[in-house]
Design goal:
228 residues, mainly alpha, 0% strand
């Protein structure tokens, strides 16, 4: 990243001594990192920013971006169902992370902190999009409102697109905790235990959210199928 991010936070702290090396057993060159390595990198970025070594901080931060971008894109796309919106959300989340790196608690997993920020960005964008859509409601009401049978659709692509729209709508209608649990497990490849740490709730609560989310999604999508 080349954009000069402003430093934030009111409490300047004396720079900590450099961390000597990455945690043992981690091989960054493979592109596979543990939560321990992610947290080490984030703490190193934080130290460099506080020491005003911004060029080195951006270089280290680029490693975090590389490690998290693919998973972050899957999560954002599950929320927003639009490639451009998802890319913007991921970029916004990374910018927020770098800008607010002083508030990162190095004793906690970086992945959990980053994912909470990403989810908040996605929810904010989703709500903004819904407000824009609601402001335009009624523009299509003058058109033929009759349902179209599947046999009248020109090809399977149209059906798949409408199915995707139905899934997006069903996900949007889920309560936020249920949606977060479902998206993180099914699109973010997180276990219920990891989601528990990210959302700050018990693992058993995550499993309840997952069960209820799946039940509601199945019911909503069955209603959509029946309406066709």
């Amino acid at each position: 990243m080349t954009t000069p991010y402003p430093l934030v936070g009111t409490g300047f702290q004396e720079p900590r001594p450099p961390l000597a090396a990455a945690p043992a057993g981690v091989r960054p060159e493979t592109g596979v990192a543990t939560d321990q390595h992610d947290s080490w990198l984030a703490a190193e970025v934080q130290r460099l920013v506080r020491a005003s070594e911004l060029a080195k901080a951006r270089e280290r931060f680029g490693e975090l971006v590389t490690l998290h971008q693919r998973r972050a894109s899957r999560i954002a796309h599950a929320y927003l169902r639009n490639g451009a919106d998802a890319d913007d959300a991921v970029q916004d989340a990374f910018v927020r992370v770098f800008t607010h790196i002083n508030s990162y608690d190095a004793e906690r997993p970086f992945a959990s902190w980053f994912t909470r920020i990403l989810i908040n960005v996605c929810v904010d964008r989703q709500r903004a999009r819904q407000r824009r859509q609601h402001s335009l409601v009624g523009l299509d009401l003058s058109r033929d409102g009759g349902s179209t049978s599947r046999s009248e659709w020109p090809d399977a692509h149209v059906w798949r697109r409408q199915w995707t729209d139905a899934l997006t709508s069903a996900l949007s209608d889920l309560p936020e905790r249920q949606r977060a649990a479902f998206v993180l497990c099914h699109y973010g490849d997180r276990t219920p235990a990891e989601v528990s740490a990210i959302l700050g709730v018990r693992e058993s609560t995550v499993r309840v959210h997952l069960f209820r989310a799946v039940h509601r999604l199945r019911a909503a999508l069955q209603e959509w199928r029946d309406a066709r």
